[in-house]
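Researcher: I need the complex structure. Ligand is fe (ii) ion. Inputs:
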Amino acid sequence: MVKPSENVKSLRAQVSLVVLMFWLKTKIIEGGGSLRRLSKEARGYERVLILSSRSMKRHGFLKEAEDYVREAGAEVFSIAGLPAEPSVEVIEEFLPKVKDFEPDLLVALGGGSVIDTTKALKVFYDAPGLNFEEIAFIDRFSKPKPVPKLRTKLIAIPSTSGAGSEVSAASVLKKGDVKYNIVTPEIAPDVAILDPRLPKTMPREVARNSGLDVLVHGIEAYTTKVASDFSDAMAMRAIKTVFGFLEKSLEGDGEARERMHYASTMAGIAFLNARLGLCHAMSHKAAWIGPHGLLNAILLPYVMEFNATKSDYARRRYDEIARELSLRDWRELIDAVRGLNERTGVPRLSELVDEETFMAKLDEMAEKAYRDGLVAFNPVEPKPDEIRELYLRAYRGE
Ligand SMILES: NC(=O)c1ccc[n+]([C@@H]2O[C@H](COP(=O)([O-])OP(=O)(O)OC[C@H]3O[C@@H](n4cnc5c(N)ncnc54)[C@H](OP(=O)(O)O)[C@@H]3O)[C@@H](O)[C@H]2O)c1
Ligand SMILES: [Fe+2]
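Model: Output:
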């Protein structure tokens, strides 16, 4: 039986006036070959737009998806070249194509990048008067304008095992060098199809980066101020799956890769509810340096150490995760995270960016990360110079 620690109890007691809610909008369909369920899910729609990235066309999944939509009796139009780590400019580029086709169903077939792009396109297609700056969470000290009710349905079919965007209420977009979120239940997909055949074609690096993002989602969601027993269950299962199966998945074990695919969505359900913390705040503001999952993996042990030394609650929560993994305590958990990074070949930050460029951006990154909305959910509220120090330590590999 899981026994809540004294600290968790006391934290929950402190926030006992805060009512937590666990929700999931998305219908989840899973299993090998489940892509074919698209023919059922697309029935009743007239004009279906499939958005995807190059690999989905290359590996034949786009063609397969188009055939299922035609089988459903709908007209289909596809866009195949969406880029990774999307920016606001990508939305501006593709929005006219969406408007021209006038779809009544959007299908996102690809990684977190494709799904996030499709979510943002849905917002500006359904609510044309809005602009990114007014609805995005730019700064936790100011409130964005609420997104109105959106009508176009969205089916997400992830091809990576990481972002969890197929169930989340967020779309993450780059503006300049940094990332900001649009967060609204209106963009949480209506259906997610988890077909493990898709992630099997991921190159090792994509599988590693997205797989380590699952770990960061699980660990951050387990330790936020709004984690609940319900989100904990999803987060813990995802964390254990990463430690048990990520390396096997990278070695080409098909069953391990399938498990990672479901774990990714479970971690998504965890952070949909419990949100994320300082690691994501920092990686979003360092987005110019490299892929999302990789930056998170590099930053995670530093953030965990910081949280554990400053917060009783964080320490106890990390201890709980450690025990589930048959480790002694939070220190061993941080070592295990570092060990996994090393064994899977995660580089140092200093291998991704030269010192002069990094130092020139450091103050701005720290200030922007401090203002990121996710900091409000982190177990410790950091000061800007503490965040600066964490970036520096990660850069120096200390
Ligand atoms: N919305 C959320 O809640 C949320 C949460 C976490 C992260 N994110 C965001 O998600 C993005 C990262 O998503 P991701 O980690 O899933 O990776 P990704 O950026 O979607 O994909 C990375 C690359 O992997 C390739 N790829 C994807 N699936 C493949 C497959 N099955 N076979 C071969 N190649 C494949 C794609 O190449 P091709 O171009 O050749 O297809 C793509 O360039 C970031 O922008 C991050 O900020 C969003
Ligand atoms: Fe993430």
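Model: Summary of the prediction. The chain has a mean pLDDT of 95.
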